[in-house]
Design a protein that fits this description.
The complex is a heterodimer of chains A (115) and B (277). Chain A contains no helices and seven strands. With 115 residues, chain A is mostly beta strands. Chain A starts with 21 loop residues before the first strand and ends in a 5-residue tail after the last strand. By secondary structure, chain B is of the alpha/beta class. In chain B, 31% of the residues lie in helices and 13% in strands. The relative contact order of chain B is 0.15. Classes of the chains: A mainly beta (115), B alpha/beta (277).
Amino acid sequence: MRTCGATPGGPSLDGIDLSVQSVIQGVVLRAGIPQNSDDVPNGGPVERAHVRLLDSTGEFTAEVPTNNQGQFRFFAAPGAWTLVVQAQGVRIEQAVIAKQGEPVDLVLTVEPLAK
Amino acid sequence: MSREKTLVSTQWVLENLNNPSVVLVEVDEDTTLYEGGHIEGATTFHWRDDLQDGLIRDLVSKEKFEVLLSKHGISNDSTVILYGGNNNWFATYAFWYFKIYGHADVRLLDGGRKIWELEGHPLVTAVPVGTVTKYVAKERDNSIRAFRDEVIAAIGAKNIVDVRSPAEFSGELSAPAHLPQEGGQIKGHIPTAKNIPWSKAANENGTFKSDAELREIYSVAGVDLAKDTIAYCRIGERSAFSWFVLHELLGLTDVKNYDGSWTEYGSLVGVPVAVGA
């Protein structure tokens, strides 16, 4: 857990009707050394990383830049998806399963060349 | 159509940052991107506040477009370079808009903000203070814009290209997946439309694929490039991207962007709708 008390992951879900949405969200962080075994990586958020959502066939569905806290969010449909995160000099993929009513909240770590 | 007349590279932009005849304009879907950092000297248009009428659903009037460009220091002989986030969606919409109003020299930064950022080029927060000009627009050129009755008449007669994601085309989603899935309209697509998502025309770094690759993508999907074509999406931005590919890069003569798109068509009473892949 983060010592600041914030929940690791994407932006606040307040005001979103989760009963009808299949949310995939998260935060992109620079790789760092956790202080404790259950810490999230502590390298800080990656602003303006490009996160794209691919469907189960690999087809592009949407893309967003991370905000200044490294966060992103998609409103998908239930099922299997793949996230691709790009920042300067780095590219990672992450498979996810979206479910209606149960938001997926991820912490993704990368080692971008930029600051 | 020559790519030299419609696209510029990041290197070209770097070499022309201080060129007084060049005006950089950023147009984003996420309008907070510009204030967080933009290419040095670039100004910005707000896709809704500056480019939508606001009272009725339409482009801004010729007079308002003239005021907008004048305010941003754009002259009739300026070389306007458009770029933006989300693979240039809204920048290509603005490009189409500049062509509607007859601007002579407008081009896109190939790859937009994404490649600029991925290559690590600098972004600044200083907003340029330019001189106010007196821009004179031409009357609207509706030869590149489709309206609903023309779209209905095109079913089974012209190429109709639905550039949304497969999930929107099939009726699974009603909006792109980074937006809330709002109701209020039918889901599905216009009958006989071919689903060629705009994204197929772009490389992963946001730049356009080669002409040969682009022709292949449309041909394989069953689009007869010798026929007239109408492109649509949800609100006309993504289809402006595909319009750009077909009209400006591949040089097809009769290609129209249906900016009413699915938010209009999917709300019309009694028109035919298809679902499924």
